[in-house]
Amino acid sequence: MKNGAQNWIFCDGDLPPQGSNPDFIGHEALMITNVGDEDADILIDVLFEDKDPETGIKLQLKAKRVICIRLDKSFGEQRYQIPYGQYALHVKSNVPVCAVFGRCDVRQANLSYYSVNGVSF
């Protein structure tokens, strides 16, 4: 049985401001889970509306592990920092993985945390 996919697309990236309450910092996160028996070599491309993409951001995810990447901080071997504004992610892996994208939005008094579905293939 196949667990996950080797390509994931998340179209709705838009980093929210950090906010003024230190207990609830606005951010987005990418969570990737590898339930397989083989380590995953992952490449992430960041696509923008108005500039060239940042491609080939490298991560490694060991077998039977999970990684949570705060997208308001630098990440990957290149320590890339996504700028504020609209973007999309293309996550590619050499083995099937599962991925989900989440956002903590503190732009209003009733803050929210929600996940954004990706398309996998």
What features would you describe in this structure?
- With 121 residues, the chain is an all-beta fold.
- It has a single domain, classed as Hypothetical Protein Tm1070, Chain: A (Sandwich), CATH 2.60.290.11.
- Helix content is 0%, strand content 55%.
- It has no helices and eight strands.
- It starts with a strand and ends with a strand.
- The model has no long low-confidence stretch (mean pLDDT 88).
Relative strand content: over 45%
Q: Count all strands and give the number.
A: 8
Query: What are the secondary-structure elements, in order, as H or E?
Result: EEEEEEEE
Q: Would you tell me which CATH topology applies? A: Hypothetical Protein Tm1070, Chain: A
Average predicted local confidence, pLDDT: 88
What characteristic shape results from the CA principal axes?
A: globular
CATH class, please? Mainly Beta
By CATH, the architecture is named Sandwich
Give the uncertain stretches in residue-range form. none
What's the alpha carbon Rg, rounded to whole Å? 15 Å
CATH superfamily: TM1070-like
Oligomer: single chain
Q: How many strands, which pairing sense, and closed or not: the largest β-sheet? A: 8 strands, antiparallel
By DSSP (H or I, 4+ residues per run), the number of helices equals: 0
- What share of residues is helical? under 10%
Structural class designation: mainly beta
Q: Roughly how many Å apart are the termini?
A: 15 Å
Tally of separate domains: 1
